[in-house]
Amino acid sequence: MIEISGLSVEYESDSTSEKVISGLNLSLNKGDSLGIIGPNGCGKTTLLHTIAGLHENYSGLLRVDTTEEKIALILQDIGLLPWKTIWKNATLGLDLGLQGNRDGVEDLLYELDLYSYRNSFPSQLSGGQKRKLGLARALAVDPEILLMDEPFVSLDEFTRESLQEKVLKLWQDRNLTMTLVTHDIEEVAFLGRNIAVLSQAPASVKTCIENKNMGTSGFRRSEEFYRVVKRTRKELP
Amino acid sequence: MKKDLARYGISFTAMLLLWWLASITVDFVLSGPQSSILPNPVKAFSTLINHWGAIWPNFVRSAARLVISLIAAIFVGATAGLIIGFEEKISRFASPILYLIYPVPKIVFLPVILILFGLGDISRIIFIFLVAVFQVAISARDAAKNISPQWIKAVRSSGGNKLQIYRHVVIPATLPSVLSSARISIGMGIAALYLAELSYTNVGLGYYINNSWKVFAYSDVFAGILAFATLGLGLYVVVEALERGLCKWNYLDK
Fold it and tell me: How distant is the Cα of B241 from the closest Cα of chain A, in angstroms?
């Protein structure tokens, strides 16, 4: 479970400080999914990084019901290490001492059609394959909470939808608690059972939309899906 | 690979032809013993082969001085450069010192080094080390400064500590720059080696060349120069092989 109450984050440089998040409240149950959407530069990434434990400089309540090792974060530009092979990138967390199963990583690479590339380097992969590798690296450590920052940005529509389906399946199969930050309204409606629309910076939650039919078969083509898309668009500042 | 060899072959032949032409011109313009001041390539290469027995001990001693100095310079320079580049607080103090000392010609320190460490090999090694170490340190520092924050976040968000960030990000990310600067250091190191072998020694390629000048043995001078070139080429090949082996991701067919 993730519980956030009155969260504020400030960036401080030598002479100035800038408030990026102000009094933000959110909560997410175990095994549930949350899609976060909001205008450019409103503090979505900062929120995700704060949940992941990358920002220690915050005030307010942030309670995450698991250990830091069980939180996996997929960065906006993935952060693949160019000098490591696909296999070494996927097992990075395990090499750094996190718990996980190497056989499980092999299965994951098969599932994401990356196994035949295991000895290649990231620069030899396509954009979609890089995104899949980011997903494999995050899931390799058997996380309980999966945080994704614009995971399918700059991909073509077809690849994006196919990756969204894969993520949905992995979320359902692994009982993950998932939080996704995106600019894509359809993506947030497809993957978020709860949708938090953020205000302009400094970020706070403007509206929370419940999307309880998300994940059901044929949801993407349903009336309900378009209703959620329409409502989300209306709520965006 | 074949194309590379062909290109090297063409360049080498062109260089020999120019050398030959220069030698003929000098021979034509000057007269007396001075006319042989620039021997042709055949003469230089045959002297290198015929006098190899005399050149070899000098070659070995010069190679040892150079290799020890360069290994120390690469190790110390890379370590210091990485830390200065990556640790902001250290960089604030250390970078100005680095920039202050880097442009000073290190030859000015030679008398001090000779007085402090004597006239033996240690002084020569320290001198060559000083010439090369700043080049490596500055390259490593610049490379460490340009490391993508996303790579560090990737390791940190996977539970990596500071040491693991160095091992998995800082060292591999800066390795290509360190090896490039190592290549530049070979040239600088050989120049420094020659200077360091001009006096207070009776062994080394610098000594061999200088001594041959004194007795007007110009073919031996050029045999010594060719031996220096061979030493440099050998080291370049080693560094290139290291680069291809350790930085495979930089040599991919895209």
Answer: 17
